[in-house]
Amino acid sequence: MAPSYLSIALIVLGEAFASQLPLFETSSLSQTHLTAKELISSKSLQDRIHVDNLLERANTLYSIAQLGEDEYNHPTRVIGSKGHLGTIDYIYSTIAQLGDYYTLSNQSFPAVVGNVFESRLVLGSEVPQSAIAMSLTPPTKKKQPVFGPLALVSNFGCDASDYLDLTSKIALISRGDCPFGTKSSLAGRAGAIAAVIYNNEKGALGGTLGTPSPDHIATFSISDSDAALYIKKLKDGEEVQASAYIDAIVESIETTNIIAQTKEGDPENCVMLGGHSDSVTEGPGINDDGSGSLTLLEVATQLVNYRVNNCVRFAWWAGEEEGLLGSDYYVSVLSPEENLKIRLFMDYDMLASPNFAYQVYNATNSLNPVGSEELRDLYTEFYTSKGLNFTYIPFDGRSDYDAFIKHGIPGGGIATGAEGVKTEKERQVFGGVAGDWYDPCYHQLCDDVGNVNLTAWELNTKLVAHSVATYARSFDGYPKRTGIEATAVLDVPLSKYHGPKLQV
Ligand code: DTR
Ligand code: ZN
Ligand code: ZN
Asked: Could you say which residues form the signal peptide (predicted)?
């Protein structure tokens, strides 16, 4: 039998042999060229991961972030910017150039974005240094300073009964018990012209008002210490004059998730992974989350050399920094049937922090969708097999796994740290600098190509390749899906975070 028939016959014998066969080119048969691909294997895919390719992609992404300079005066890939549009184009075209291995789609959705151009708060005769205009805050009236007496709101300001008539006053409200947006709305309904939310924990606050409301008013946050003097004065019956000024815009824009799914592989049993394509306004986001997005791109590029038994679905989310907008939207429009096809979701957000720790989401099946624990253990076994340490981090609602685990889909992921501080013990096992942030350039202009640790990035990309290959090859032994109900209980109060910004 001519070799070409033999080789084709061998291919159709199925996986039992094909995975042991070397790659071979068959001779033409009735003009059909069959190139037999080996079945995906973790080691083989990992061996195709090289840091030079990642670094080249990082340089490309930085150049794309520079497209945002004319509008923002610095590189950025924030949603709505030319830097983000360029990122989406780069991802889409890279996958499209791989031929017809993937079904490629873009999912557009409406996203609310805010920008604070200028703000100033004066309490009495002081300018509190901790004052921050909250994300998605509306401007003060006519974008001009407003003046009025400060009024202390009772309790946590979570009920209308906590508010007296605040007409022409500036509300001073404690953090706690309900989202910042609720406080702003209630203050607005009581007639306040601005609101100041003070921290009930030590330190400055920050945060977002979340989904805009017509009742929202211009809202600042300040630290507990900056508020203390004025709380005392007001409780002592003294009058405190204040002024607030915010020039801001809140608007709805269309933005786009990119989804790429292998055409091969069981479409009823998909392994899904994601990273976010956007950065914050402040900088190019090469680590956050260029590292995750580019890792996905590189793994997707190398995966085309293999056959898969289960489908692999890559997602690049838009609007993560605004509050997980893209992954929230994606999960919200999944039908129950489509939801059940996703066997697990792996979140890859910040894989290369310069002062890294190898961090694994500490999911447990008792608190999270069944299967989250098995995914967690895949990560920890990988690090251990390399003689490496790792630490656990909580499911705190700060990244794109949130919508998945809240809708019954097993989730997990790895990270290398953001504004958390590296401990001495972590320095001993990971190196770096104790007492510094894991990523000292987190959400800053300096999150550029020099802000990635290449050793951590290459290793974590090999781990991502391992996670893809493992499940693309087989779900044997992995828990079946049990339903789409929310079975996740986050390690922190449910509403404290939803995305990188605090909302409570
Ligand atoms: N990557 C961050 C969000 C994030 C996810 N997990 C953590 C843990 C600690 C701090 C931040 C985060 C971002 O997109 O800003
Ligand atoms: Zn991120
Ligand atoms: Zn971020």
From this structure: 1-18
In a domain, 58, yes or no: yes
Residues 444 and 303 in one domain: yes
Please give the model's pTM, rounded to 2 decimal places.
0.86
* Ion ligand 3, residue ranges at CB < 5 A: 288, 500
CA 279 / ligand 3 centre spacing (Å): 6
Predicted pLDDT at 35: 59
Of all ligands present, the nearest one to the C-alpha of 283 is: 3
Torsion of CA 270, 489, 335, 251, to 10 degrees: -110
Structural tokens at position 361: 């989401």
Catalytic annotation, residues: 320
Cβ neighbourhood burial of 74 (10 Å; 0-12, 13-18, 19+):
middle
Q: How many domains does the chain have?
A: 2
**pLDDT tens-place string over residues 62-74:** 999 999 999 999 9
Give the number of the atom of ligand 1 that is nearest the alpha carbon of residue 499.
3
Q: Note whether 393 and 338 are same-domain residues.
A: yes
Is 409 contained in some domain?
yes
Q: What is the CATH number of the domain that holds 244?
A: 3.50.30.30
Render pLDDT for 313-366 as a digit per residue (tens, 0 to 9): 999 999 999 999 999 999 999 999 999 999 999 999 999 999 999 999 999 988
Residues within 6 Å of ligand 1 by CB = 288-289, 320-321, 349-350, 398-399, 415, 418-420, 500
Residue 319 and residue 278 in contact, taking contact as beta carbons nearer than 8 Å: yes
- Average pLDDT value for residue range 248-275: 97
Residue 423: both structure tokens together: 């401990």
Same domain, 206 and 294: no
Q: What pLDDT, in 10s, does the model give residues 108-141?
A: 999 998 889 999 999 999 999 999 999 999 999 9
Same domain, 178 and 321: no
Write the pLDDT tens digit of every residue in 16-28: 444 443 333 334 4
Domain of residue 193 covers 114-251
237 and 279 belong to one structural domain: no
Are 202 and 127 contained in the same domain? yes
Report the atom number in ligand 1 closest to the C-alpha of 320: 14
Ligand 3 centroid, distance to 168 Cα (angstroms) = 36
Closest CA to 151 of 125, 172, 124: 172
Give backbone dihedrals phi and psi of 190, rounded to 5 degrees, phi first: -85, 0
